[in-house]
Request: fold
Amino acid sequence: MIAAALLLFAAQDVPADVQADDIVVTGQLLKLKVGLKTNRKGRAIACAIDRTSGDAGFDRKACETTVVCVNQGPRDHEAVSACVHDRMFSFARGRATVAAMEERE
Reply:
């Protein structure tokens, strides 16, 4: 089982003293647990979310990403966690950017 700390952006009410043209971004760090099933060679063949982030799409991407990171090696905990964290941070940042662009329209 691999536990990875992932960044998930959460919306929050803007304080009254913030001007309308200011941008406020609040992030929340979540502990997301991903369980893997591996074959005899140590390659990940199945994935399940043991502790959800509350966002099914984010969980699905975390599972897919963890499998990719494990299978591309090295397979030690630190390397896999760093790989997953970097990729999921980029994914979350991309989702936040898309959401902000959609709000402007």
